Every structure is written in C-alpha cells, then in structure tokens.
Amino acid sequence: MSNLADFSLTEAVDAIRDRKVSSLELLDACFAQIQLAGEELNAFIWLDYEGARNFARRADEALEKGNWLGPLHGIPLAHKDMFYREGKPCTCGSRIRKHFVPLATATVLARMDAAGAYSFGGLNMAEFAWGETGHNREFGDCHNPWNPAYVPGGSSSGSGAAVAARMTYAALGSDTGGSIRIPAAACGVTGIKPTQTRVSRYGVMPLSFSLDNVGPLGRTARDCARILSVIAGHDPLDPTSSTEGVPIYEEALKGKADGIKIGVPENFLGDVDHPVGIAFDNAVGLLARRGVKVECVQVPFIDAILAYYEVLSHVEAASKHAEWMRSRPQDFAADISWVYSGYAIPATYYLEALSRRGPILREFAKAVFSRVDVLATPTIPTCVPTLAETNIEHQSVVGEGKAKATTQIFNYLGLPTVSVSCGFAPNGLPIGLSFTGRPFGEADILKLADAYQQETDWHKHRPMLPRISAMLSD
User: Fold this and answer.
1) Looking at 8, 94, 179, 208, which residue is catalytic?
2) How confident is the model at residue 397 (pLDDT cuts 50, 70, 90)?
3) Which of 105, 156, 306, 468 has its Cα between 20 and 30 A from that of 199?
4) 80 is catalytic
5) pTM higher than the cut 0.85
C-alpha cells in the first residue's frame, strides 16, 4: 500500500504488530493528509503533534521490548472535541467552552489508552453536538472531503470528514439523533450507534441524557467492531451504563450472513430521493442474492416516537444549558435557539415521553423483531445538500431536519444502528445504508455490515482531496 494513511484501523494494527510500519510513521502519514487538505476541510479544532509523537515513540519502544499494549497498539486517533481529557482543551464546538480544560478523562478515552491508542487532536463538531450539517460559527464550518461545498453531516462532522480524508484511522463521535450515522453516510465511512447504555458516557459532554450515545466511526465494520469491544461495558463512574456482558465483536464477523432476515419498512421512509432509493434497493437486492432473506414490515408508533423524541431532546437540552442561556444567551449560535422551546414544554408531556418509552419499545420489538433479525433503511433519505443550502444564518435551510428523519427514532428506542456506504449520488456525494438490530444486538448488525462490505467496495473509495485535485488539473 503506497500511502500508509490508506490503511484501515485493523490493517494498521496488523502492520505495527508485524513490524512493517511504526506508530510514528502512521502518525506522520495522518499529519501529511492534514497538511494536504486541512485548511479546505477544517476538520480539526486543535492538534497536538509533539505530544502525539511522544506517545508514538513509547508505543514503538514497547514493541521493541516485546510488550504488546493491546488491540489498538500504536494507533494515532483524533476524536470529536467533546470527550474530556484531563489537562487538554475541550471546546464542545462552542464559544462558551472555548477555553475549557477538563479535570478528568472520559472513560472511553481511558479504555482506548489502555488498549494502546493515543490521541492527537480534537475534531470539529456542531456547537454542543446539535446540528446535522457541519456548520460551526465559532470555529468555522467543516467541509465534506468529497466536495468541500457540501455538508459533511453532523454533529460529528469532523469525525466523518477526518476519517474519510485519511486524517485519522478512526474517531469517536456522539449520537443523540443521528450524529454518528449522518456524517458516516455523508462522508462515505462506517459508523455505529450502539445500544443505549452500552458505552459509558462519563467524561463526555451531555446533551440529552435519555438519548445520548457514544460510538466509533471507521473505514470498515471491522474497525468499528474492534473499537466497540474496547469501549463497551459497565463503568462504575457511569451508573447508567449497562452491566450486559461485552462480546468480542470481531468474532461475530466470521462466516457468511446468509440466513439473516432483513426487514424493509413499508410505512416510515417518507420522501426518499430517487438516487438514494435506487442505491438502497440495489444494496438490499445484492444481499438477497447472497442468501439474506428480505421481508417487508410495518413499523409501529412512528408518529408517537418522533413526537416523544422531540419532547425529550428539547427539554433535556434546555435543562443542561439553562444556566448559560440565562447568563450568556449572546454566546449561543442562531441554530441553537431551538433549545429555548424546551422551556415551554409541560412537565406532563416530558413524563409521558419517558414513561411511554418502554412500552413502545416492547411493541416495536414484537412487531419487527419477531419477524426479522435486522431492519434496513437508508441512513439519510435525501442526497447530501450543500453548506450554502443549509446555512441557517442566511435563512436557507434546504434539507435541514430531513437528514435525521430515519435516524432519531432509534435514539428514542435505544436500538443499535450501523451505517455503511452503499453508493454515490449524481452530485458525487456518498449514500448511506443502515442496519438496526435488537437491544444489544451490535454483533448482528456488524456481521451484516461486514458481509455487505465483503461483497462491495464502496467503503474502499476515497475522496480526491482538494489540493490533490488542483495539482492534477494543473
């Protein structure tokens, strides 16, 4: 492989273990990509190259001494800038926390450190993790590496863009209404929102504690499986984290996916753009030809789920930001103003949304998962729009709100969902395909995602970065 940055995460780990490459060489490969197109994409808020070099040297020295640090040995990573690390900046993509330095480290980062990885930067994001496009007033908009005029998706915008642009081998993101899966789809990478409570949220900026999730974005389903096995599991520092046992998710990727039953919803996909529908049908058709069983299903309670999701997200976000919205309202960007509506929602509505969650999940599982193993949907029902079309500051909101039409219901239900690339639209931007499983069914959806990637090469396509395009045209 001519460019070390083109390794998937698991390929990079194998290359280090086999002494074909050093951790320091992998770090330099990432920084070469950042130098190539960092300004055009604006995927990073901050970088710590020298600090990362020290960690890379330690990883290389440990290997020389015969010490294998773990399943992420020597891998340089950057993460959405909302995961706290003691002594390092964590802006949360906001003016309010522009100079915030945490006093503790997020459990997910500590677990990745223990597995041998190290961090070298904080990735751009929507302010306070709310926004599906990638706009950011304080740090500048993040851009899609396939075409910088287009949105990279949000709120984990930098995570999607940096993984696609080969600036990091993987990245952590958060997902409250689609914020891992939307940028994964828009940037042509793989991203998984695990089951609610599957991964600790200690040391992670909260938005809506009933809906927030932490998960990885990587090049492949195998990359995501590797990271998820590291970060999942009960954490005493997060009493909401599940005590459910954690499998080695990569073990589930062995073998074929024939015999798995996929459900295609008949009643909630809404207005799907024609290119997205074609790509989705082709993907499902390919899996059917490979032995996967496909069945149409009716998905219940969609209107109620969407309404209850809005209640929970607005009320809990308003509660989280109440003090700042009273004392520093001028420091919130215009696209955060929706939070104020949370103050107008009666407590009875909020309690209803919470209390109905369990019964609706039980009925949903009965209607869907009694018939099929996995539910398949387009990740984003529309073609990826441009930054200009979705710029709220300019009162142009084409596509705003539509991106999460097929994602936010799974946050309310707490179900695991993975997005993979399944083609390209006429505008040259990727199209995403999602698989949703039963509670704690991450192994099932990762197996299906991996099986699809074994049969296709969409995940191997890489964007032609801006400066490369300019050089080739000269």
Assistant:
1) 179
2) very low
3) 306
4) yes
5) yes
